Amino acid sequence: MTDSVYIRPIALVPGPQSEEGDAIRLAGSMVYAHRFAVILREDGVVTQRLTCSPATMPQVLEQLPEDVAADAALQWSNLSLAHPPLELGERTIALDQPQIMGILNVTPDSFSDGGAFLDDPEVGQAHAAAMLEAGAALIDIGGESTRPGAQAVLEQDEIARILPAVEYTAAMGGAISIDTRRAEVMQAALGAGAAMVNDVSGLRYDPRAPALVKDAGCPVVLMHAGDGTDLHKKAGDNVVFDVFDALRAIRDDAVAEGIPAERIVLDPGIGFGKQVADNLALINALPLFHALGHPLLLGASRKRMIGALSHEAPVEKRMGGSLALAIAGMQAGVQLLRVHDVEETVQARNVWRGLRDAALTDFADLPAD
């Protein structure tokens, strides 16, 4: 009996015209896919891999075992599903191009800013303003460090850290997501002007969180990380398929709790319980995760893998690697990029978008056969 099926885009093209229309627009993004691998697993072992294009996909789907046929058909439909905009209070964030989420950590032990934005609220406010002016679609505010070995934070301490940042960012008209895994912190932030929850535990840490998110009616980011309590517990042996399966289970749990599927964003959790090779495999496989049918968020900015691949470059010297990973996300059709360096990433996105727009007309002047 086949346990699971996965449809992975394996060849991206500049536009459908380059393959005489035999390509799909990936998840409503500016990326087109022409070749796909349909992969079957049994007891965690890959047993079959079939390749095809959109034109021949129906024949491949007809060959699949009955127990995975419906899932395969749903994944194929999801790969071309265009997602509606995210509604964050009075702000609407379209998902037809990559959008930039700026990071504002108000913690004393953040790996990237060392507490600068907590110690001086005016500095934090200026930083939030600069990110919005540079083109950030929203600001992600967090009051708990989730790096390996970070000290636990009491709910009231986390609330005291994030509320001023939420309030001054909301006063500037910025769309805000709250980066927390605690329901009480979510509630305080949403009441102060946040309009999206970004939970690194995928709503598995605090049993009160799913009901709170459902009742708030706000979008939520569900990230893959460890087991919810131990965020850095090692991921599975086949990290791509295991993270795919885990995200599907996390999503299904959220939907079962009454959270509408259209309000869910998924994040594969780069760096959480994953080694460098795992992170690289996940980033290379990002197009696969569109088969789950939700917008994707990629958070790889300044992470340890960049240092590991760059002679142990310190955090403050990882912008080049961060931009490379952000562009990899854009090339995979990722809708949200969570970054520290907003201005530079927005510029990279704008140039990338110019290239994508131009690619759609590259073949317009070719003579017909």
Overall shape: it is: globular
Low-confidence stretches: none
What is the H/E string?
A: EEEEHHEEEHHEHEHEHEHEHEHHEH
Q: Describe the oligomeric state of these chains in a short phrase.
A: single chain
Strand content: 15-25%
Mean pLDDT: 92
Number of contiguous helices: 12
Structural class per helix/strand content? alpha/beta
Largest sheet: 8 strands, parallel
**Fraction of helical residues:** 25-40%
Rg from alpha-carbon coordinates:
20 Å
What is the terminal-to-terminal distance?
Answer: 47 Å
Widest sheet: strand ordering:
12-11-10-9-8-7-14-13
The total of beta strands comes to 14
Relevant terms:
369 residues, alpha/beta, eight-stranded parallel sheet, four-stranded antiparallel sheet, 12 helices
